[in-house]
Write a structure and sequence with these properties.
11 helices, single chain, about 25% strand, 7-stranded mixed sheet
Length: about 400
Amino acid sequence: MSQLDQLGRHIGQKIKERGREYFENRFVRIVYEDPEFISAQVRGSRIYDVDLERDNISLLYSCDCPFFEDNFNVCKHIWATLLEMEKQGLLEAWKHDFPNELIPAYLNPHQEANLNFRNSDFEDPLYIDDIYNIDAAKPFKPGHTETSQQSNWQRLLGKLNQAKEKTPDKQSWQNEREIIYIFEFPRQDSRYGPTIQLNTREPKKTGGWKKEKPLSFTHEMLSTIPDPADREILHRLVGVQRETWYRSPYESTARFTPRDHDLQVLLPKISGTGRLYLRSAETGEIFPLKWDEAAPWIFQIDVRPDHSGGQYEVSGAFYRADHRIEVSQPEYVSYEGIFVAGESISFFNGSRDWLSFFRNEGSFFFPDSDADRWLEEMYTIPGIPPLNLPVEPLF
């Protein structure tokens, strides 16, 4: 007996058979995996989310299908995910410390699960995913008789009723789930703006949060999201022009590239949720961000005398009131007029070309003897940022 068979020894045979059908039909997609946590999506009448988490010698499991939510028992989607993990070799990481029991990751500590796995085969047919493709027999209504001939309007209404009965319910939103908004910048300053990745997270049974995973949503689902701030943000995001959408190889993941006029509205609203994050381009980790509500910073050029060297130093900096930030200080700067410094994300005004020049080249110098010629030439350049000249004249 394999380790997986040993783990699933109490799962009913029909559940395993249906799970294997899903697995063999390639209905399972692993969307995230690490040594402690697996997240998958299983295609049925809709996309079902399956989470598996190591907890010492136990494997915590959950699925958002009706069968699990009603009984907390292993469903066919969970078993199909375990088979897919076995196929991809993901169970190898556990072979020396393989979990020996399956425990539902239900969130309410006062709610008991029915862990009678062997009697859980009643999932078929009550929770069969393709039930919407079956024409169920309907009882006759009192006072009506069935006739062999129907008028056109009766046949049309009958088709409409059948279509409604075959339509699956809207995908519901789990109240414990949260949307997080992750800003991603290119590795280097570029003319490409930041993207916003929409992920979700759910609380662990043991405290804290599970690994975030991409949000899969449809227009129909928007009305089921409980937080009005999230609904407004998502409505604004889906209004971004389609050609500015980023798509992963799987259609379920949407990344948006809003422009500066979109960001001016979106950033304060997203920050107000307390769920705005920045993903490090180097490590892939996410860090909390907060919107800087003060006035935009102004990019300017500083000219400072270097008396010991008989020259002047020219550099760039951001100014706001009495505050100054060196041009090299922000971790990320975009052409959309925003930069990230520490845990703050701010707007700025000023020439993107000059800003890019100083961030790439650093400061430069010119000798005292070239001061007049340098100043004259600078003022011939279109769109020059404000110059902060020294008190003493340059020539």
